[in-house]
Amino acid sequence: MNADAVQGRLAALARAEKALHGLSQGERVAAVGRVLDAWSDPGSAVRRRLLDEHPRASGLSRANVAAGVELALAGWGRAALEHLVAAEAAGAAPLAGTTSVVHGGVLPMPTLLDALAPLVLGSPVLAKPAARDPVTPRLVAASVAELAPELGDGLAIADIRRDDEAALTAILAAPRVAVTGSDEAVAAVRARLAPGAKLVAHGHKLSLAILGEGVPLENAAAQLSVDVSLWDQLGCLSPVACWAVGDAARARAFAEALARALEAREAIAPLGEVDTAAAARIASERSEAELRAAAGGEVALHAGEGFTVVAEADAAPRAAPLHRFVRVHPLAEASELAQALAPLGPHVAGLAYAGLDDAQALTLAQSIGASRAAPFGELQAPPLDWARDGLGVLASLLD
Fold it and tell me: What is the DSSP track for 47-78?
């Protein structure tokens, strides 16, 4: 699709806006709710198509995608949408103009929600698919056409070449743009916005874990291995490191347990494809850990075909190569977590926890800038109304 074709899609969406505005907010919620009900149903046709097509495009294993969507979409139906609208946009007037959505990453859930949220508010959507997930936007559009025909032609796909600057500029001419991607991708979009356009941006984020005291290590490791293995750590809620309260010996013991748990997960939901550059980063960090261990450092490496766990000697964060590569750090007290994570700046999305009560975990999450805290094994299942990066799903789009 070139710039002229994008302009044609935008013109068609401008005409579709009238139909969206002719519906009440309740009618739009009911229509989008039917789409969400289908996506949250494990037996639906769209879920079957997603599991057939997404792994081929993304390189993730089918079992991993199946486990991820089953966990994450379980509560994403019409009832959750009605709750979200009541909390963030009750009685809001329909938005004027199209919303362009520049998708990023590989997870279907943010793509699904980012494409549907503007429709709830009466804004037609032009969606640019992510390079590693061209499947989800197309399936969302098909679901809307089939299950929510009253929304008319309010959702269109702009599948352009990555190097087509003119087409991208045309997409970004909309009065409202939502983008998910790297900080560099967000900056590039920001630089091309039309004067006065509204930007909703989700840049680079990562997640972490903390293990409090008095927790059986094997059980905690099995639970955390779910969060680490889902989506091969390619989502913003994938923990890349865990801080274990106690001394280095406890961190090493938990690292061993986590390695065993990740090896077991490999049999259930195998690691997907790892590109050459990522494989090189993993190999480099494994070698570096081995060298530090050989030099007498309190470092231990546990590696298998589909995972890497490094027990670190101190609380300082280190590089995260992803693809099921996780570090375990000792931490004297849970209250010291924010100080240890200072080098990460504003890039923390979520905190998985065990051995802490909910109030303690929430306080810690707030201290490190995380917008989500959840027990081990549940971090990758945010509710529909999760304020990702502190931005409301609907409120962030309102004028």
Answer: HHHHHHHHHHHH---HHHHHHHHHHHSTT-SH
Distance CA 117, CA 397 (A): 8
* Distance between CA atoms of residues 217 and 238, nearest Å: 20
Residue of 104, 92, 94, 128 whose CA lies nearest to 10: 128
Q: Tell me the DSSP string of 232-282.
A: GG-STT-EEEEEEES-HHHHHHHHHHHHHHHHHHHHHS------HHHHHHH
Domains, the chain, in order of start with CATH, read 3-204 (3.40.605.10), 206-375 (3.40.309.10)
> Are 310 and 327 spatial neighbours (Cβ–Cβ below 8 Å)?
yes
Query: Cα–Cα distance between 399 and 396 in angstroms, integer?
Result: 8
Q: Tell me the pLDDT tens digit for each residue of 293-323.
A: 999 888 999 999 999 999 999 999 999 999 9
> CA 294, CA 331: separation in Å to the nearest integer?
23
pTM of the model: 0.94
The 10s digit of each residue's pLDDT in 357-391 is 999 999 999 999 999 999 999 999 999 999 999 99
Closest CA to 266 of 295, 227, 305, 218: 305
Query: Residue 376 has which token pair?
Result: 């081990």
| Nearest Cα to Cα of residue 120 among 202, 198, 33, 18 | 33
